[in-house]
Design goal:
This protein is α/β, with parallel strands linked by helices and 266 residues long. Strand 5, helix 3 and strand 6 form a beta-alpha-beta unit. Helix 1 packs across helix 11 and helix 5 packs across helix 7. The protein is globular and about 50 Å long.
């Protein structure tokens, strides 16, 4: 798999799909990897050139010790676009990945065609919540978080009906390096883009799960209200909406990007 080094950290990514299609950069959530986007790869790769990467601290990317920041994670994403000589991309991020996408919309607007912000918020959680999460990882390891997380990531119905799928995400979270998890928790703890996102000029689609306890529909509405022209869509899902409602999610992403292409060429 390709890698790019930035500030001494190797970032791993995968490039798939139609080499002549518009580029879609997918940014994963805390405790997952590029594998989060497998349902999107299968559905969208015939149309789009798809770049999925492992956020710093996750998967095959390095997990340097210390505090990460949203600026750092955003600059990582730009480095991947640079490595693939991509001038501008549609960016789809979930949770932490959505926050990274918003950073790009604010700080690298010339690299963005559109933003798809899923299961995210301009301010996720609280300082005390993230400090408690870091303390738990230090005391008991990342795997200690996994059972409870599945109840936030998926609805009860999905947990009962799709145990094999749930086990994949349980494994991804459990195997996240402690240093990477804690570093990204610090980035989430310190990031507040609520005022900054008012400057985003790119087309924006916000996707949220109706039963998401992590970033509920009120967070999606807050983003929609702050970004001029942003649209929002509600799915019957919890936090990992792109997996639980993959078909509906893929339809939303595909139609949204296609609409941007039409308006550009129309």
């Amino acid at each position: 798999m390709p890698q790019v080094a930035r500030s001494g950290c190797r970032l791993s990514y995968h490039v798939d799909g139609n080499p002549r299609g518009d580029v879609v950069l997918f940014s994963n959530s805390l405790g997952t990897t590029h594998e989060l986007w497998q349902p999107q790869l299968e559905a969208l790769s015939s149309t789009f050139r798809i770049i999925r990467y492992d956020t710093r601290g996750h998967g095959d990317s390095d997990a340097p010790a210390g505090t990460y920041s949203i600026d750092m994670l955003g600059q990582d994403a730009v480095a991947i676009l640079d490595a693939e000589r991509v001038d501008r991309a549609h960016v789809c991020g979930l949770s932490l990945g959505g926050l990274t996408a918003m950073w790009l919309g604010v700080h690298a607007p010339d690299r963005i065609r559109s933003l798809i912000l899923s299961s995210t918020a301009a301010r996720i959680g609280s300082v005390s919540m993230w400090d408690e999460r870091i303390a738990q990882v230090e005391a008991a390891g990342v795997a200690s978080l996994a059972d409870a997380a599945m109840g936030r990531w998926f609805t009860a119905g999905f947990l009962a009906a799709q145990p094999a799928t749930v086990s994949v995400y349980h494994r991804l979270l459990s195997s996240t390096p402690a240093a990477g998890y804690k570093g990204c928790c610090a980035a989430l703890r310190d990031a507040d883009l609520r005022e900054a996102i008012r400057t985003i000029a790119a087309p924006v689609l916000v996707i949220v799960g109706r039963e998401d306890p992590v970033t509920p529909p009120s967070d999606a509405e807050d983003i929609r209200a702050r970004i001029p022209g942003a649209r929002a869509a509600l799915l019957d899902a919890a936090h990992i909406a792109n997996v639980e409602q993959a078909s509906a999610f893929n339809d939303l992403v595909s139609s949204f990007i296609t609409r941007q292409q039409s308006s550009l060429h129309g």
